[in-house]
Amino acid sequence: MTDIIWPAPVILTDTAVTLAPLTQDHAVDLTLAAADGDLWRLWYTMIPHPDQVSAEIDRRLGLQAKGTMLPFAILTPEGRAVGMTTYMNIDAGNRRLEIGSTWYAQSVQRGPMNTQAKCLLLGHAFETLGCNAVEFRTHFMNHQSRAAIERLGAKLDGVLRSHMVMADGSLRDTCVYSILAHEWPAVRNNLTWKLERPRG
Question: What is the DSSP letter of 184?
Answer without folding.
Answer: H
